Amino acid sequence: MTAPLLDVQGLGISVQGARANLVDDMSFTLHAGQTLCIVGESGCGKSLTALALMGLLASPPLAVTGGRALFAGQDLLAMPRAELRDIRGDRMAMIFQEPMSSLNPAMKIGEQIAESVRRHKHVGYEPARARALEMLERVRIPAAAQRLDEYPYQLSGGMRQRVMIAMALANDPALLIADEPTTALDVTIQAQILDLMRTLQAETGAAMIMITHDLGVVAEMADQVAVMYAGRIVESGPTEAIFDDPQHPYTIGLMSSMPSLGAHRERLVTIPGVVPQANDMPSGCRFAGRCPFRTSACDTPPPLEDFGGGHRVACVNAPLEASRQETGT
Amino acid sequence: MTEPKPILRTHGLRREFVTAKPLFGAAQVVRAVDGVDLEIAEGETFAIVGESGCGKSTLARLLVRLIAPTGGEVWYGGTNIADLDEGAMRALRRELQFIFQDPFSSLNPRMSVGALIEEPLGAHGIGTSQERKARVAELLTRVGLRPDHADRYPHEFSGGQRQRIGIARALASGPKVVIGDEPVSALDVSIQAQVVNILEDLKEEFGLTLVIIAHDLAVIRHMADRVAVMYLGEIVETGTADALFARPRHPYTEALLAAIPIARTGARRASAHIEGDLPNPIAPPSGCRFHTRCRYATEICRTDHPRLTGSGAGQVACHHSDTLALTGLADADTDRPAAAKARFALYRDAQARKAKETTEP
Ligand SMILES: Nc1ncnc2c1ncn2[C@@H]1O[C@H](COP(=O)(O)OP(=O)(O)OP(=O)(O)O)[C@@H](O)[C@H]1O
Ligand SMILES: Nc1ncnc2c1ncn2[C@@H]1O[C@H](COP(=O)(O)OP(=O)(O)OP(=O)(O)O)[C@@H](O)[C@H]1O
Ligand code: SF4
Ligand code: SF4
Ligand SMILES: [Mg+2]
Ligand SMILES: [Mg+2]
């Protein structure tokens, strides 16, 4: 098997004044052309993970406390800032959670895309503008030539997100990180953008990390999935394994608390309680306070163990069927 | 079958907004709600769905006269509340309550939780001060909070807890109808499930009529008895949730259903999604407002405006609905693999066991 494009091992992120890491011992690999979805509820550390890889953590108060992230063999976490700046927006690009915050409101969208092309590809004004037009056409913006000279506020939310994608892909990155690219969009527009991202990824062969809290989006987009809870990966593996054979109590709880689209309307399963904060983080399994399968063995941090085929689970009591028999209930 | 008694009924309901006047020319008018006829039956959960800007919030506010209509009628029982003056409306507010989307901005940060929930009781002169305190404690317990939370302030609570406070406040005056404008949209899935369950329990317990506005179709599928689909200020289809999700009759409903990402691998073949953005609501398309995005559109759709026709069981506004065979969500699309369902059952059982242990030690 070829070496992965991105190999993250033991990534930790902390904030000043908090005892527990906000992101802890995060490990995953990603191959060219593949999509990894990172899924989890608000505050579990999805965006921080992406920002750390891009070298964009607000430090202080945030800091990387350990680990490495090999991108085509180079460690992103140990790279000098200037070198990282060259890679960012070029071989590695990001689409942010709020498109308005990453588009310059005072600059025409064509110029914004062209500027990034000029900076990284060292080409002149005309070729950069031609590339900007080509990219707007590729993300299917109608009347692209006119849109080049429009400002972000003149575009709908869906169009803005298309511009973000055009900008991110303008320099043919090997890795695209998309942080909730469709969360703010209506469902019909979301479907269009997801289609577009799939098509462009197939055309360019880029690897993608897609961050979302929507398990529906995960099922439609991912080759690999990492489920995060309170800063840690609790379960990861091929998409089929996660959806057809969920093993971690949090994954199972999350999936069964989603309302079904089918006709049967049984009462929703809930996960009682709330996510622990960095200052009252359990020392063992971070899900212990809300887990119905908790035993005394859960007081030490459970390692991610391989259940076969790259399906990894961090739960001392998985598989749950077996653990029930052992406790003799 | 006898039709259930409507508790809320609208006729030709309209609300326009005048947008900011440009430097040259006339100010423009958005017809946010444009001729809506609705009947909501007593005791049902009625859902209004549609994309951003289609007029859901405006319609919801009109139903309880939080805003006044430009035209048309809203009948609550035998009263047309569109015509009521403020004083008469204030008395009716006790029976018609509203839950807002944003638990963060809809609660006055300087009032304690107890004062917030008690306020509607005081406003309607319900009970003595002592009785009101007892009612607040009871309501807090009912929405899964503790009586001593009454002394705390909204900022001390999480999003899900704040939404429960909003629900307790809406229920305080003993309403007959509760309207929730995206009451769970801002919440994470696991917290959303808690709040959905609470809403359903309370509806049952107090015999409420619930009107739920949402853009999340799974939440609607789960909660609603009947559904109305809105597009650019108009209702384009109504029906029972079962019928509308399984056999949509309006092309826009079909498109909405096709766009839902389904949490199951291989659930969808590369689906044919509708093209294009929502048109500008200031200048909606002629004829059928959906024709610019509809793949079944013909000449008549560009010129003639289709009217909503049908009975209470189901209505549709489409020239071609009788001849179209549209695709909905089959159970096979949404069903989960057996192994996953077995795990869900295991989780359910474990949780039930744990709940039992903690209540009867
Ligand atoms: N600049 C910061 N200073 C302190 N804490 C922070 C900072 N940024 C994030 N955090 C905390 O780190 C945790 C993880 O944040 P992150 O933004 O990665 O969450 P997320 O998974 O992306 O959530 P969401 O789905 O809401 O976007 C949260 O508890 C958050 O409060
Ligand atoms: N106070 C107002 N002034 C001017 N226009 C308004 C006002 N309130 C709503 N509108 C316009 O009326 C239309 C319907 O808005 P409304 O808020 O009812 O939509 P919605 O379906 O609730 O959307 P969302 O899903 O985004 O909440 C929109 O075009 C909106 O811009
Ligand atoms: S390790 Fe224990 S507490 Fe954590 S998920 Fe597994 S059973 Fe639950
Ligand atoms: S009336 Fe015509 S354009 Fe409108 S939904 Fe029906 S087929 Fe489509
Ligand atoms: Mg985030
Ligand atoms: Mg709204």
Overview of the structural elements:
The complex is a heterodimer of chains A (329) and B (361). Chain A has 329 residues and is α/β, with parallel strands linked by helices. Chain A has a domain of 75 residues. The mean pLDDT of chain A is 90. Chain B is α/β, with parallel strands linked by helices. Helix content of chain B is 35%, strand content 20%. Chain B is built from 12 helices and 12 strands. In chain B, strand 9 and strand 10 form a beta hairpin. In chain B, helix 3 crosses helix 4. Chain B is globular. The N and C termini of chain B lie far apart (49 Å). The chains are: A alpha/beta (329), B alpha/beta (361). The interface between A and B is large, with 57 and 61 residues. One iron/sulfur cluster binds next to loops of chain A.
CATH architecture call of the domain at 6-95 and 225-359 in chain B: 3-Layer(aba) Sandwich
Q: Helix fraction of chain B? A: 25-40%
Q: How would you sum up the global shape of chain A?
A: globular
Oligomer, anyone? heterodimer
Category from helices, strands and their pairing of chain A: alpha/beta
Along the chain, the helix and strand elements of chain B come as EEEHEEHEHHHEHEHEEHHHEEHH
Protein name (chain B): Oligopeptide/dipeptide ABC transporter, ATP-binding protein, C-terminal domain-containing protein
Family (chain B): Belongs to the ABC transporter superfamily.
Keywords (chain B): ATP-binding, Nucleotide-binding, Transport
InterPro entries (chain B): AAA+_ATPase (IPR003593), ABC_transp_ATP-bind (IPR050319), ABC_transporter-like_ATP-bd (IPR003439), ABC_transporter-like_CS (IPR017871), Oligopep_ABC_C (IPR013563), P-loop_NTPase (IPR027417)
